[in-house]
Give the backbone structure.
Amino acid sequence: MPAPVRRKLLFACLSLTALALVLTGTALAGAGRAYPPAGSPNAGGIRDLYWVVLGVTGVIFVIVEGALILFVVRFRNRGRARSAEGPQIRGHTRLELIWTAIPVLILAGIITVVFYKLPGIKDVPAAGAAGPKMTVQVEGRQFYWRYTYPNGAVSINELVVPAQRPIYLVVTAPSFDVIHSWWVPELAGKMDAIPGKTNHTWFEAQSPGIYQGQCAEFCGIEHAMMLTHVRAVPNGEYESWVARQLHVSANIGRMTFEGACAPCHGLQGEGIIGPALKGNATIANPEQLRKLLANGKGKMPPVGNGWTPKELASLTAYLKQEFAGGG
Ligand SMILES: [Cu+2]
């Protein structure tokens, strides 16, 4: 290889290595770890599989790269003419059988471990330490998550659950919407929210706390704003929260505004891709507002289609209080 070409190649290799190291460091700093988190038994199963696959592929990586470097050094040019041919070898049946059989055995091993672990990831336990399984309906919408609890209460973007109880999620999206994907990495794997189809997943938060998540399917212009979080609390605290959530309130109004309206209209209603809200005539007219939320208009999706009267009343009161009048 001529010297300038060799120098360019060396430079490219070193640049790529440096870039890889920088990106790895950034990713590590961002996540705080180099492995999937596990705040729920099924997330623990996913993490175990991650370690198995990483271990197997890690060993293969070291063997293959080690052999590559060894052969590069051992069989280097040593001043022979570039046109000189190496020894002509034809086939080696036993070697070929071995390098076919070993990968098959490795894959079969990985598959066995996956199937062994799958029930623990997939099957919902009937009860946890703090009580029996509880079902929550999850709806992915442009651009927020809507959660419906067993008593009919609703919350937007924040899913409040009792810790140490299995939460069974029924995940879907309205027929007029698009595909989203529910994902709170610390608690469970991704689950698609598909219009007209119902998917299921579950988790059991092992300890109280906040678990961050986001929509994991590109679903439109404000996809990046489609965040969610799970707030796991002690059982008693959950029961009083979910009972309070049944009444029209300023809290529900703000929660609905911040989840369903703010991604496009701004947290201060200042307008982003949707118009500014201050002094908007529709806000002063509840009937017009109801129709707009139910049907959408132009770029605006029908964000309020299917809402309960309580959600609608809470949001209407909140918008009126914050944005009606003035200009
Ligand atoms: Cu989405």
Observations:
- The mean pLDDT is 91.
